[in-house]
């Protein structure tokens, strides 16, 4: 390896690692801000949150990797240009394209690694992430009793506490309403104060209440329609509530495995082919079902030698009486309604299945577009850094974010168009790459020819000459 190639690689690796982890951290914070209400206050163990964050980070690689390649390439060549190292490289007779060779090899390796990651590791990470996130969002809140409101966390009970003590366990002004539908009775308990605590194995929540009264309504004995009302006074009593429903229950991951994000290329191809075969066989069966309704018009479309078909007389209804005409019209209307209902239901089913096929093709194409995006954004970042000649996290960040937003917006619009069926998957999923690649080639040409594309002085001189000519 030549020293100049080693210099460029060292200049690229460090900002790439730094920017990659910065982008991953920002995306992880966005994930936490989005789902903070579903995670906080549910009594999760610390490793559950850590596991969810790890899987969320894996799913963010598809967005973080292209942005990191773009930003680090701008920073690398911008820093080389700012320190006049690119000038020294060119003065030694080495062109910019030749100086980009080691970077092209590294980015190609990253692109291949991204493809392998998206095909083998990303489906597993998506399966773990979405299944764990589903279970976490379905988990009941760990704050079982709040002040001043009726808490319905426990089935069949409504608990209200006026206020809690500073320790969070002492309760004042407790009311417990219990509804027992099986025994057809209701009971209300009032207590001036109490203490709550959990059993050592977190199986029960115990409320130890003091100085209270309990009112209970129950059905009469021996079928008596009159209800029985009972009142109890107590100095101390206990109420136990089962906490088994508040523990995290994991759903079987096989229930999520049929989602497209959890499939690799082989599974996506199998799903698409099998579903398409089902659609084709469904169309053939639809034609056979509907052909029975066309019993008045099932003439042969191809002419047969020696046979002639008389045209149908449009005035044949005039020869019938009024009752026959009504019967014919009603029969025709019933046939039309039957065909309409049959076609409508099967058409809705066909649209849903076609949408599923398009979604599977979108996930199939995403495996390749991630690698292509890394290469396309590198073709933009490297020459752009050589042109603007600015390193660090200032101007390169602004330029990188602008181009990445262009890529992200175009790809998002293309993906939505494919889902709606207005664009073919090959066009919709690759349109962002097709737009950015010519821009990268243009910038590479400008950087190789030492263009002053972003030099404001050259533009000022140009406009000054134009205005002077107009004045003359």
From TrEMBL:
<feature type="transmembrane region" description="Helical">
    <location>
        <begin position="368"/>
        <end position="387"/>
    </location>
</feature>
<dbReference type="InterPro" id="IPR005495">
    <property type="entry name" value="LptG/LptF_permease"/>
</dbReference>
<dbReference type="Pfam" id="PF03739">
    <property type="entry name" value="LptF_LptG"/>
</dbReference>
<feature type="transmembrane region" description="Helical">
    <location>
        <begin position="12"/>
        <end position="33"/>
    </location>
</feature>
<feature type="transmembrane region" description="Helical">
    <location>
        <begin position="422"/>
        <end position="445"/>
    </location>
</feature>
<feature type="transmembrane region" description="Helical">
    <location>
        <begin position="54"/>
        <end position="80"/>
    </location>
</feature>
<keyword id="KW-1003">Cell membrane</keyword>
<protein>
    <submittedName>
        <fullName>LptF/LptG family permease</fullName>
    </submittedName>
</protein>
<keyword id="KW-0472">Membrane</keyword>
<keyword id="KW-0812">Transmembrane</keyword>
<keyword id="KW-1133">Transmembrane helix</keyword>
<feature type="transmembrane region" description="Helical">
    <location>
        <begin position="100"/>
        <end position="122"/>
    </location>
</feature>
<feature type="transmembrane region" description="Helical">
    <location>
        <begin position="393"/>
        <end position="410"/>
    </location>
</feature>
